[in-house]
Amino acid sequence: LLKMTTETFVKDIKPGLKNLNVIFIVLETEQRNISKTKDGHEVRTCKVADKTGSINISVWDDIGSLIQPGDIIRLTKGYASVFKGCLTLYTGRGGDLQKIGE
Predict the structure, then answer these.
(1) Weakest mean pLDDT among 7-21, 25-39, 44-58
(2) Residue 79 neighbours by CB under 8 Å, 6+ apart
(3) Residue 35's pLDDT is what?
(4) Nearest CA to 5 among 88, 74, 102?
(5) N or C: lower Cβ tally within 10 Å for the chain?
(6) How confident is the model at residue 43 (pLDDT cuts 50, 70, 90)?
(7) pTM of the model
(8) Chain-centre distance for alpha carbon 76
(9) CB-CB contact of 71 with 46 (8 Å)
(10) What is the pLDDT of residue 3?
(11) DSSP letter string over the chain?
């Protein structure tokens, strides 16, 4: 049985939602928004959008350096939380960011 994943629109994302599947286009990857965690991981914040709105996404390590403005990305098993007053998407455990177009 093939289970289709349902996509969530940016406008419907609320803090605390889990298991989000979102398709978005990358608007900007802010080089100055790169921070390092205590254990040496690189975390960067990118601004992304779909036709319903825009949101920040937090990406870790290599994947962050691969994402370019204009890329179309599918997030699977993401979750939403508020970080520094901004609604932010994260990749959950077992989740994935996949480039599907540009």
Answers:
(1) 25-39
(2) 16, 17, 18, 19, 20, 89, 90, 92, 95
(3) 82
(4) 74
(5) N
(6) confident
(7) 0.85
(8) 9
(9) no
(10) 60
(11) -PPPPPPPPGGG--TT--SEEEEEEEEEEEEEEEEE-TTS-EEEEEEEEETTEEEEEEEEHHHHHH--TT-EEEEEEEEEEEETTEEEEEEEEEEEEEEEE-
Instruction: Pick the more confident residue, 73 or 63.
Output: 73
Q: Give the Cβ contact number of residue 77 at 10 Å.
A: 15
The answer to whether the beta carbons of residues 88 and 46 sit under 8 Å apart is no
Q: Which residue matches tokens 């406008």?
A: 11
Pick the CATH number of 10-101 from 3.30.70.360, 1.10.260.30, 2.40.50.140, 3.30.2420.10: 2.40.50.140
Q: Which structure tokens are listed for 9?
A: 């629109």
